[in-house]
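Supplementary Methods S3. Complex input for the s-citryldethia Coenzyme A-bound model.
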Amino acid sequence: MTVCEYQPGLDGIPAAESQISYVDGKQGILEYRGIRIEELAEKSTFLETAYLLIWGQLPTQEELTAFESEVRYHRRVKYRIRDMMKCFPESGHPMDALQASAAALGLFYSRRALDNPDYIREAVVRLLAKIPTMVAAFQLMRNGNDPVRPNDDLDYATNFLYMLTEQEPDPLAAKVFDVCLTLHAEHTINASTFSAMVTASTLTDPYGVMASAVGTLAGPLHGGANEEVIAILEEIGSVENVRPYVEDCIRRKAKIMGFGHRVYKVKDPRATILQDLAEQLFEKTGRDKYYDIAVELERVIEEKLGHKGIYANVDFYSGLVYRKLGIPTDLFTPVFAIARVAGWLAHWKEQLAENRIFRPTQIYTGAHNAPYIPIQKR
Ligand code: SDX
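Predicted complex, serialized as structure tokens:
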């Protein structure tokens, strides 16, 4: 077996063969099962896209209707999980609440029937259906209220916003949110997806796999960046302050959240679509001053760091859209997780189809034959 040269962060090292999605970082291309993200954002829905990612082809009308009704049926969460969530501290981060409740789902469903296609389909449906319910439930509970039961008359995106805000959203808001979920659903072997694959390769249950992925997505260098972007825009405060802010960050070699990407060396195609969604929302609901700051921030960073391939990524405009939809800032990453469950499930299924437990090697740089020094002599 040849040992590859060590690459920090496995930068550029293939860890799997996959047919789920494709990214061309130089041209800014993203495809799900070969279909361009721009087409899916315009013509598909999140649940149809999830079906495409997980089962590998677009569903027929009959298949989609059946899938949508299965997900609708499984939206409710066991009362024991809701009671467990009521014990979570209000000050806890919603990503920690989601990670704990996603793992807890595994307590209720038989473990490790991974060779049974019915078990696989049930796990896919339950996770897609229950993750949004748990995110919304924690939001209401941490404000001292009972969670709202899912409304089976509403579609996936509308129902989530309804459970979160206790009122039915404007149709444009629901449509924009559904597109956001499609945009965040999948992105080849990013950190949280790789975490899901490593966990899946041990043949544990899918709920533990999701808990691993949620914990990984939470980090500010990954899914947590969208929450940080809003804090940066608020800190900058005005368009005039953008340039000094950027120059100070560069001086301090500080990374600016929402920019840069391990793969994209041009503007993330998802950021372009999210920017358009933001403009649609602002046209209808009024411009957000932070949008003007964001546009100026993107312009100055392109001027200063574009030569290093640092451009806006998916996390840069998503927060502005979510704010307009009435989603609290610390729920931005849980919303990212709601969408990325589709991609994690697709890679979980693909990993199981031809599994080999992940066990990389290392280059040992430590000591050998070291003496054990008695504590009295240390
Ligand atoms: C997501 O992988 C995925 O696909 C993830 C994702 C998905 O859909 O799953 O696309 C979602 O996680 C998007 C990324 C969200 N994270 C952020 O916005 C956090 C800020 N971005 C950086 O932390 C960084 O760009 C990363 C982590 C995203 C990528 O980092 P890399 O590939 O490890 O790049 P690097 O740290 O080696 O930096 C290379 C150079 C360095 O400068 P030099 O030392 O060479 O002079 O670029 C600079 C870095 O300082 N740089 C930045 C920067 N990102 C990189 N400088 C300023 N601001 C930044 N944001």
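The chain has a mean pLDDT of 95. Residues 117-142 form the longest helix (26 residues).
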